[in-house]
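Recap from last week: sequence in, structure out.
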Amino acid sequence: MPGDSARAGLRTRGAAVTVAVTVAVAGFGLASCSSMSMPGFRSFKPKPTTSLLLVESNPAGAEAKASTGQKCLTPCTLQIGSGSDFTVTFTLAGYVPQELTVQSHMQDGGWNDADYPVFDPQSLFPTLQRAGAAPSHKPAAKPHV
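Predicted structure tokens:
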């Protein structure tokens, strides 16, 4: 029958148009995925943790106060969660205050572990000088004229 071949041609063209539209829509969908921010595996990683900084002084009993806000009386440990450099100030009645800088950076914890701060130096142990005390070195001798 002459009408059957015309109908078959229309069906073939209709199927081809459907396939072309499906491919175009899928292509646009995939293209839009590349411009979106998809969550990666790092989103399942634990949040960064803290590290302990051992703090001592000579003499013991000085207040150690970190620029990050934590404080304690020596000997003690400070729990720090900063990946940035910070200072620790030591104060004790009758002694000159002393400030030390600690360099800090975040260490990658790997696949399953949280990132954590690493300190340099890993501990602090300053010797405090008495207030008003003479310097510990001897003054240079004056030449005789």
